[in-house]
Specification:
The complex is a heterotrimer of chains A (about 400), B (about 260) and C (about 240).
Chain A: H1 2-16, E1 21-24, H2 31-38, E2 44-47, E3 51-52, E4 57-59, E5 64-67, E6 72-74, E7 82-84, E8 90-92, E9 95-97, E10 108-113, E11 119-121, E12 124-126, E13 130-135, E14 141-143, E15 146-148, E16 161-167, E17 170-172, E18 175-177, E19 183-189, E20 192-194, E21 197-199, E22 206-209, E23 215-217, E24 220-222, E25 227-234, E26 237-239, E27 242-244, E28 252-265, E29 268-270, E30 274-279, E31 282-287, E32 290-292, E33 296-300, E34 305-310, E35 313-315, E36 319-322, E37 329-333, E38 336-337, H3 360-367, H4 378-389
Parallel strand pairs in A: 1-2, 2-5, 3-6, 4-7, 5-8, 6-9, 7-10, 8-11, 9-12, 10-13, 11-14, 12-15, 13-16, 14-17, 15-18, 16-19, 17-20, 18-21, 19-22, 20-23, 21-24, 22-25, 23-26, 24-27, 25-28, 26-28, 27-29, 28-30, 28-31, 29-32, 30-33, 31-34, 32-35, 33-36, 34-37, 35-38
Chain B: H1 2-12, H2 16-35, H3 39-68, H4 70-77, H5 83-113, H6 117-143, H7 147-175, H8 182-189, H9 193-205, H10 207-210, H11 216-223, H12 225-251
Chain C: E1 2-11, E2 14-24, E3 29-33, H1 40-48, E4 55-60, E5 63-64, E6 75-78, H2 90-100, H3 110-114, H4 130-142, E7 148-152, H5 160-175, E8 179-183, H6 187-190, E9 196-201, E10 204-210, H7 211-218, H8 223-240
Classes of the chains: A mainly beta (about 400), B mainly alpha (about 260), C alpha/beta (about 240).
Chain lengths: ~400, ~260, ~240
């Protein structure tokens, strides 16, 4: 798909005809700014290898900026680096580093401002407050960029890719790490986030709010402070993503808050404190996911309704499901639970007795967290067994009536 | 000391109880590990076996063995050797034999079927528990004159550490739930080697959950390697303290 | 050779040894006699350092035994009940004690051959009868030709033949200038081998006399008769007072 867009862009340029290429060298101060002042629509600005100490480079012409062997544009911690205010600009092959830091403006390495069809590809963004900042922009491509910083706290840091009030974006194959949020979406619709890797960001690997009809697929969110947060959005689709090793007291592979009519399918949740945390979600399909070695595979608050959990694998999680109430308006069916010890007399590969995913001890630790220190002791083992014979504190509506006897082949 | 230890080991590895112990562990391990397609689940069953049977068997067998060796110990003490050397050699011989039985019985199947960090941690816990409960048995031996009373004390100790202690701790946690007791609870668990062994395993299997609790202590302490190091150090203390106490008491003991 | 001075030991309220002072010289065989619970075993164990006395001192070869342990290389001990690790063979047990007493490489293996222990050296201790274990214990006591031999009920459980072999060995060693301390219930077994008699009762030393003296006093020839006679006299003496 991105290749297609790039192809389209190139055809457009070729058709346009009489253009020139301006070569920029790092021999004078403000070399890039001077070149930009000189060029006209359709030109290509080719930047030679070197160190350019320039800030607030305004791109107001429909040009292509190409770096040769990654020339370094260094903001020396003052201001932003490139601000694009014109459609169809291409920025590629640059190393952009050291934006300023300000509490008034969000300092970005590349800022797209009210534009269409801009592509930012193959750049290296190092140590910037914000990496790529898309503001009221549409049909833009952010492809194969490496965006890394080394943020220490949430207050003084920005996001890797930050999009606000935009539509039809494609973010693909970027590698983002060490920012506040890896990818941040607010009021962004009809966009796709594909094959990105977002790691070691201090807050969320992916954070989006009020962003409807977006698709997230084949991304990896690993080792982020709080995993991924998806809030106040509708028709979100998440496929084939990997959520790994998001640890901490407020850490989730995915936090879903007020989400409706969405799909979460074929994802892998591996070694997270909580696989999926749901609050006030409705009509979400959670299918074909694999939950492995998480603290809690899922935390489904009682404010959730009409969600469907089917054909998922639950393997080696400390607790499969936790909830805060006794109400359960969601459906669990046909999942594989490795803790299930029922039987299958009719040999139809479905257990004959239901599985209750909320274990007694998970209820106990919900009320008395410190009791976790006794988990897996002989005593708690006895308690769990007694509870199985005489259920009293486990929510009995929350059950899988048709638990699978064998795990599903999902990967 | 090495000489005596060598002969004690040579005697014990031909002991029927030790051999049966190793075989039962091996059969159990092979069956629970291969019965399930998920070896992690089998490892959990083995954890239960380790936490329950290793302390019980170690302390009981060791206590009986010490008391049965009393005439032999007398004979050894009539030789020109130091008292503490004889005692420690007996301990070392026993602990080596029991550990060997455990490491062969559980270790071999585990390392064949699912060799990973959790498995190594399990073996480590079982090994340390063997050291600890053999040392507690030694203390019982030097403190009690009578074999029957000694065995009674051994059973009581095993029950206390495997079940009663946790029950009391749970009551404590429930009654003081409103207060910040994380630190206290963590401190209290240091007084039970079985809990320490279990926590060592928890740090391996359930660290994700432990990280889910807001208690900064849990997070800081258990999330990093510090937790495991602390637990192992506590367990080593559980080996050393009974041993040192035994040596002290034994120095003045009349045989 | 052994000098015991004012030795006192209590187990709780029970006085096992009450202010005992004794001197044992080389080349003598001393029998420790007395009823059950009279303190014989406690005395032996004190000398071996198995029992820590409350008061008093014990010196061996003019060296006081405190926390010292090396002095035991001068002693060979044959315990009353010989129990050994069950799965060890006789050979292993003998080898082990040899390994422990590395300082001594001159072995007296006469008893081992005389008692026929060498022929069954591959048998495990578990399979042995009480008598055979006693034989092993006896062999171990004499193995290092120590200057002092302490034998606790040596003939109990031994067959008559072995018993005679052991007695001959005791006489032989004593003649070599060694000190032999024996406790026994079977006084007839001590006839002919013992030089001196120590009689203990309730932890107190009743008398310590040579057999010649006793013979002179009582004009009896058998040890058990002598003791009985002496005890009768002691009794009447106390009654007179």
């Amino acid at each position: 798909m991105p290749r297609l867009i790039i192809t389209i862009l190139f055809i457009f340029f070729a058709y346009n005809g009489n253009t020139k290429t301006i070569v920029v060298r790092a021999d004078k101060a403000n070399a890039i700014k001077n070149a930009l002042a000189y060029c006209t629509d359709g030109d290509t600005v080719s930047i030679e290898k070197g160190l350019y100490k320039e800030q607030d480079i305004l791109v107001s012409k429909r040009i292509t900026i190409l770096g040769k062997d990654y020339p370094v544009i260094d903001g020396v911690k003052k201001g932003q680096l490139i601000v694009v205010v014109r459609d169809s600009v291409i920025i590629s092959g640059l190393q952009l580093q050291n934006t300023g830091r300000s509490s008034m403006t969000d300092m970005a390495a590349i800022r797209l401002q009210n534009v269409k069809s801009v592509s930012v590809t193959n750049n290296k963004l190092v140590n910037n407050t914000y990496g790529v900042y898309l503001q009221n922009s549409h049909y833009c491509l952010v492809y194969k960029n490496t965006i890394r910083a080394d943020a220490k706290d949430e207050l003084n840091s920005g996001n890797g890719i930050h999009a606000w009030k935009s539509t039809h974006l494609l973010l693909q194959s970027n590698n983002i790490s060490g920012h506040r949020d890896g990818i941040y979406f607010e009021f962004v619709t009809d966009s796709r986030i594909i094959n990105n890797t977002s790691t070691e960001n201090i807050r969320y690997g992916l954070h989006f709010m009020f962003s409807h009809k977006d698709v997230y697929s084949r991304n990896s969110f690993i080792n982020n402070g709080s995993g991924v947060a998806v809030m106040y959005s509708k028709q979100v689709e998440m496929y084939y993503n990997t959520f790994r090793h998001n640890w901490g007291d407020a850490s989730y592979a995915i936090l879903l808050k007020e989400i409706a009519d969405s799909k979460i399918e074929h994802n892998l949740f591996d070694k997270n404190t909580v696989g999926i945390y749901m609050e006030g979600t409705s009509r979400i399909q959670v299918l074909y996911n694999e939950f492995v070695e998480n603290g809690w595979a899922m935390r489904v608050q009682s404010s959730c309704d009409n969600n469907v959990f089917e054909k998922n694998n639950f393997l080696s999680n400390s607790f499969d499901v936790a909830t805060n109430g006794t109400m359960m308006l969601n459906t669990f069916n046909n999942n594989y639970w490795d803790k299930y010890d029922g039987y299958d007399l009719d040999k139809n590969k479905v257990g004959d007795v239901p599985y209750y995913p909320v274990s007694m001890y998970s209820v106990v630790t919900e009320r008395v967290p410190t009791a976790m220190i006794l988990y897996r002791s002989f005593l708690t083992d006895i308690m769990n067994r007694v509870e199985k014979v005489m259920p009293s504190i486990v929510p009995d509506k929350l059950k899988d009536d048709n638990p699978l006897m064998k795990s599903l082949k999902l990967r | 000391m090495k000489t005596i230890m060598k002969y004690v080991v040579a005697d014990l590895i031909r002991n029927k109880v030790i051999v049966v112990y190793a075989i039962i562990l091996a059969v159990l391990s092979f069956s629970v590990l291969s019965i399930d397609e998920n070896p992690a689940k089998g490892l959990l069953s083995l954890l239960n076996v380790t936490l329950l049977f290793v302390p019980l068997i170690s302390i009981l067998f060791a206590t009986i063995y010490y008391f049965n060796s009393i005439e032999f110990i007398e004979l050894l003490l009539a030789q020109p050797v130091r008292r503490n050397k004889v005692l420690l050699a007996e301990y070392a011989g026993l602990t080596i034999s029991l550990s060997l039985a455990y490491l062969l019985g559980v270790g071999l199947p585990v390392m064949i079927i699912s060799p990973n960090l959790a498995a190594i941690t399990l073996l480590m816990s079982g090994f340390l528990l063997t050291l600890i409960f053999t040392a507690i048995a030694l203390l019982i031996f030097v403190l009690f004159k009578d074999k029957t009373k000694g065995i009674g004390a051994a059973i009581a100790a095993a029950m206390f550490f495997t079940l009663l202690f946790d029950g009391l701790l749970l009551i404590f946690i429930y009654s003081f739930n409103e207060y910040p007791i994380d630190k206290a609870v963590l401190g209290i668990t240091a007084f039970n080697p079985v809990d320490l062994a279990r926590i060592l395993m928890l740090l391996q299997l359930d660290v994700a959950v432990l990280m889910g609790y807001s208690g900064a202590l849990f997070k800081k302490f258990l999330g990093t390697g510090t937790g495991s190091v602390y637990v192992v150090i506590c367990m080593l203390f559980w080996v050393l303290l009974p041993l040192m106490l035994s040596v002290r008491v034994f120095r003045k003991k009349d045989l | 050779m052994i000098h015991i001075n004012a030795l006192t030991k209590s187990f709780g309220s029970f006085k096992a040894l009450d202010n005992i002072s004794l001197n044992f010289a080389k080349g003598r065989t001393v029998s420790l006699l007395g009823p059950n619970g009279s303190g014989k075993t406690t005395l032996i164990k004190s000398i071996l350092g198995l029992v820590i006395p409350d008061k008093g001192t014990i010196s061996i070869n003019d060296k006081q035994i405190g926390n010292d342990w090396q002095y035991r290389s001068h002693i060979g001990y044959m315990p009353q009940i010989g129990r050994y690790p069950e799965n060890m063979t006789i050979g292993q047990v003998i080898k082990m004690i040899k390994d422990i007493r590395k300082d001594n490489v001159q072995y007296d293996e006469e008893l081992i051959t005389q008692l026929g222990v060498d022929k069954i050296s591959s048998k495990t201790m578990r399979s042995l009868s009480g008598g055979t274990r006693q034989k092993v214990s006896a062999c171990l006591a004499f193995l290092f030709s120590p200057g002092i031999l302490i034998l606790d009920e040596p003939t109990a459980g031994l067959d008559p033949l072995a018993s005679e072999i052991l007695k001959d060995k005791i006489i032989q060693e004593c003649n070599k200038g060694k000190l032999v301390l024996i406790t026994s219930h079977i006084l007839s077994d001590l006839d002919g081998i013992t030089n001196d008699v120590v009689y203990l009762q309730d932890g107190k030393l009743i008398f310590y006399k040579s057999v010649d003296e006793l013979q002179h006093m009582t004009s009896e020839t058998k040890l058990n008769k002598m003791i009985a006679s002496v005890m009768r006299n002691e009794h009447t003496k106390t009654a007179d007072i």
